Records
---
Amino acid sequence: MFNYSESMSPDHNQARHDRDSVARAALALLDEVGLADLSMRRIAARLDVQPSALYWHFASKQELLAELADRITTRIPAGSADVLTTARSIRDALFAYRDGAELVLSTYALRLGSSHAQVALEASLGPASTERATAILHFILGHTTLAQLRMHAESHGAAASGDEIDPTAGLDAVFDLGVAAIAGIRASRPRDRA
Amino acid sequence: MFNYSESMSPDHNQARHDRDSVARAALALLDEVGLADLSMRRIAARLDVQPSALYWHFASKQELLAELADRITTRIPAGSADVLTTARSIRDALFAYRDGAELVLSTYALRLGSSHAQVALEASLGPASTERATAILHFILGHTTLAQLRMHAESHGAAASGDEIDPTAGLDAVFDLGVAAIAGIRASRPRDRA
DNA sequence: ACCTGAACACCGTTCAAGT
DNA sequence: ACCTGAACACCGTTCAAGT
């Protein structure tokens, strides 16, 4: 048979990709344009490829998005730190990419991609704490999605009413309060400013 | 030619609408097809009208969606019941329409529509409890969005992995645990089966 | 006051065909 | 093994024009 794949073919502009390069380009584009504008056609354009080419690597957009959620989520450290530290590192992983929380929320709902975050939380909480870990995870996803959507809305000047208060103010306190309460520990002092 | 209209008027096919009738049709359609399939063109077709006609009543799809979120949300009783009861009635209001939680979550993030739910929670918690109320609301939105997305995914057979356990099992317990913990009350017994 | 008709700039996905 | 080209069935939104 013919085998084109293993040749280096130095001369021509043959954009040849695999699953990983597509996912990497998509993840970078997500961070630039946000989830709403992350289309298969845009990803293809970024890779100098026709939109249909993406369907060689991923069966659907949904499958590609699940892969992105997995990549965002695997950055969470698995070691059993205390709950608040684990919760914060989950939140920070979601914050690391634009609309990361929203993407992980919907993917996690569809049960695609193993819940690395749930495992980390259970390790932090000790044995027989599945329900608490689940509740904390739901809180983190809700809170972080809200906060992230709000950040982006405010930067694009979509504020609605007449009040001028910063919508992000006090959100860290709400986060710590929620996590600590569900974990059943005393609310800790705010961490030092980074 | 053909006349699909409901033809209450004897003579002509003049579908004449206002803001309210458009919103009502959209809300009914949301419940039938879900948020992902709720397009301006579908709503227009339901009203026997061209898509462009909707833009006389609403400036954008976003504005229409905000109105729907408001309608879903105003069903929440404002009286100061105990926290768990208030939280459950918020959840039930979101559950009352397909993808209600997801819709309210994104609308609430953009600060469109006054937060009727936040007010109700603060009334249940007593004075100086804004942060707790916010945390509970974030938990409710996260939890309910997850649960609702999961219900729909499972009914369409989008289950991914090999385990066969019901993804909805135990979710009521997680809800009660989360709300009670953030409110700072002892977890109550499960309510009687309806 | 409310709607039509036509257009513009987009979508996700499929599939035969190329190399 | 990986991609092109063309098509199909859609999107949200604008705007002149009709009644």
---
Amino acid sequence: MSAGQHAYEWPRPAVTVDCVVFGFGAAGLSVLLIQRGEAPFEGSWALPGGFVREDEGLDEAARRELGEETGLTLSFLEQLYSFGAPQRDPRGRVITVAFYALVQELAQPPLLATGDAAEAQWFQETELPSLAFDHAEIVSVARTRLKGKVRWQPIGFDLLPEHFTLSELQRLYEVVLERELDKRNFRRKVLSLEILEETDELQRGTGRPARLYRFDKAAYARAEAEGFVFEL
Amino acid sequence: MSAGQHAYEWPRPAVTVDCVVFGFGAAGLSVLLIQRGEAPFEGSWALPGGFVREDEGLDEAARRELGEETGLTLSFLEQLYSFGAPQRDPRGRVITVAFYALVQELAQPPLLATGDAAEAQWFQETELPSLAFDHAEIVSVARTRLKGKVRWQPIGFDLLPEHFTLSELQRLYEVVLERELDKRNFRRKVLSLEILEETDELQRGTGRPARLYRFDKAAYARAEAEGFVFEL
DNA sequence: TCAAAAGTGTTTCGGGTACACCCATGT
DNA sequence: ACATGGGTGTACCCGAAACACTTTTGA
């Protein structure tokens, strides 16, 4: 059962939420970190997060803390795993429910709010500093989950701007999956899913302009309801 | 971060672990439930579980509670998801970290130990009673996870006895995946993985005797290390 | 000899993969 | 004109799926 009769006689660990926020840009995949303003690990980089309040659900707490510390708008948030090794926090028993989240524009400069966060900053996944607590492990679990999930659910679009080129989408998948993909096969496969809508806009840069596409959420929802599985 | 400087000023929810234990037998897939001996939900069926102690990890707590309440030997245990809706427990804020587990022999009669459990009993998944708290939802999440995971990891063997026939294995997959499988294709596929060892034993019953096989854990570990993916 | 479950091959089809050249633009 | 990235079609191969009869035992 969930609780005995004398619930209040039991030792009560503190419960926090921590969040691994991924962003994607020219430099590849990035993770948002905040610099701790207080002991322990003062000055160290850590995941944004904080205590769960008495009257809020876990997802709710994750969103609130993230909003307070960074002001970011999330396009995806999912519970990841709970970490509760007895000594993971030097101050005492702290169990954390970890989440991972995706943002569409890594551009938006993160704001600061609570006293806990001295600064917030994006780090490329290949250049992460050493992290407080067991946060390095949490990031690693999140990265693995993202890699596993991106092939079965259309969450890759939550890392791209509203309009994107097929080349951008392909590069995203190459970075997340850590392998190269064939251009022609990738495009054929993606378009055959019929969940992208072609816009009439072009993106200009060096070389031939590229067509911009949009993820058609409604078409995806319809297809999914009919038993369609994403898979890429 | 995981905790602020004034950790002990924060409200502290109680933290429990709850466990969905699956067994497989002639009647199909079953779940182990215990009957609550105390309020709230006294007399109701619920998942085995209990409070996390100050000095133990989450997995450890799940194993301990399960051992205390049922005496079962688990062949597989994995963290499932954490449930923390503010009102999920009428006594106050209780966050539970749910696990799911598999046992090889559904035969072993579960023992009882703690005062919380008045009785323990296997229920077929198709005939579950209504459950205390949000445990019905937890079971549902566990069932979905099992269905999803059994195709990519060789956890099906954790639901079968040490030695089993290919027909038993097939029926297990049919039950878990909720669809029929072709006998010849299934056998070919399973044997082609080269992770089963043929024993020299036969299982007699009505009809032609069936060859018994064993899951070759070492062969699987070797293959996995070389990048082999299970998939069935 | 009958009932019941075990065991066994071949063909077809679709999707995955490999692969090279032309196109549209900016400089 | 050249450099840069965008865009396109075909052939092959392998694994998935469909499908029916023989074998071995107990009753």
